[in-house]
Amino acid sequence: MENNIIVDSCTDFIKETENLDRVPFRILIDNEEIVDENLDINKLIEKMKSTKQQIKTACAPPEDFINKLKEEASNFIVTISSQLSGSYNSAMVAVETFKERFPGSFVHVFDSKTAAAGETLVAMKVKQLLEENFNSSEIIEQTNKYITKLRTLFVLDSLDNLAKNGRITNFKAILANIMHIVPIMGEDGEGRIVLKEQVRGKKKAVARLIDMIAEYNVDFENTILGITHVNCLEKAEKLRDEIKARYPFKDVKIFKSSGLSTIYADDGGIVIAF
User: Fold this and answer.
1) Same domain, yes or no, for 60 and 194?
2) Whole-prediction pTM value?
3) Which band of pLDDT confidence, cut at 50, 70 and 90, is reported for residue 1?
4) Is 159 exposed, middle or buried (0-12, 13-18, 19+ CB in 10 A)?
5) CATH of the domain at 89
6) Residue 195 near residue 172, CB atoms below 8 Å
């Protein structure tokens, strides 16, 4: 039977994810609806910086997922955390509708409980297990176990989007910029994004991010670390080299941000997952 992996567009870009079927989010900037598909990230960043309005995102409707499903295939869907978006719920509605039409079909939806680099690693894990010829139940079991262990952290280069989107006040954003305060954010184990620490200075924040890896129980030799960068490849490469010099990860992969990850992490943002 054919295998079919479907992801929403919070999955970032690397060779292993290029050919996966994508269901795009919508990004709303100044009343313009931008479909997160084949985007020019630099142009998106320009629009993000020029607007003074709230930037909104909307997950794809169930019909978009249905259009990617195949009756004669083992379908696996990977979505952004259900705590951050309605994408998972939309996919579940799609599955229910699809199975009513095709009762014998197979579809499983993974709530990645993360985003960006984390979601990308989950999609890569499913792809790897399929290539290694694991059966569907084994893929579900191993991927769920992987999601439970996965940790995601990110450092923001700018607080502008958080202020525009109402996550923090403009005053706090201005004060943080003046004081050179850099937040280190991460997931809480349940798929919600929380503030982990605040560090003064961008270089110190990145150094602290690297230090924080040691605080987790990681099976380094069997673990891949992913880095999503938003328009800052050199920074990501430097971070990769520093992480590899300190920790014996199986591999460190660099991902180019999708449109949705760009909205979350903003220009210069870095997301790591392992």
Assistant:
1) no
2) 0.94
3) confident
4) buried
5) 3.40.50.10170
6) no
Gyration radius of the chain's alpha carbons? 19
Question: What's residue 153's pLDDT?
Answer: 98
**Of 94, 119, 148, which residue constitutes the final position of a domain?**
148
Write the DSSP string, the chain. Answer: -EEEEEEETTS-BSGGGTTSEEE--EEEETTEEEESSS--HHHHHHHHHH--SPPEEEPPPHHHHHTT--TTEEEEEEES-TTT-SHHHHHHHHHHHHHHH-TT-EEEEEE-SS-THHHHHHHHHHHHHHHTT--HHHHHHHHHHHHHH--EEEE-S--HHHHHTTSS-HHHHHHHHHHTEEEEEEE-SSS-EEEEEEEESHHHHHHHHHHHHTTS---GGG-EEEEEESS-HHHHHHHHHHHHHHS--SEEEEEE--HHHHHHH-TT-EEEE-
The proportion of the chain whose per-residue pLDDT surpasses 90, expressed as a percent, equals 85
Does residue 177 register a pLDDT over 70?
no
pLDDT digits (tens, 9 = 90+) for 91-101: 999 999 999 99
Claim to verify: residue 119 and residue 209 sit in the same structural domain: no
Whether the CB-CB separation of 255 and 13 falls below 8 Å is answered with: yes
Shared domain check, 183 and 111: no
Q: Is the pLDDT of residue 194 over 60?
A: yes
Q: Which of 124, 148, 172 is the last residue of a domain?
A: 148
pLDDT beyond 80 at 168: no
Residues in the chain: 274
Give the C-alpha separation, 256 to 21, whole Å.
17
pLDDT tens-digit series, residues 10-30: 999 999 999 999 999 999 999
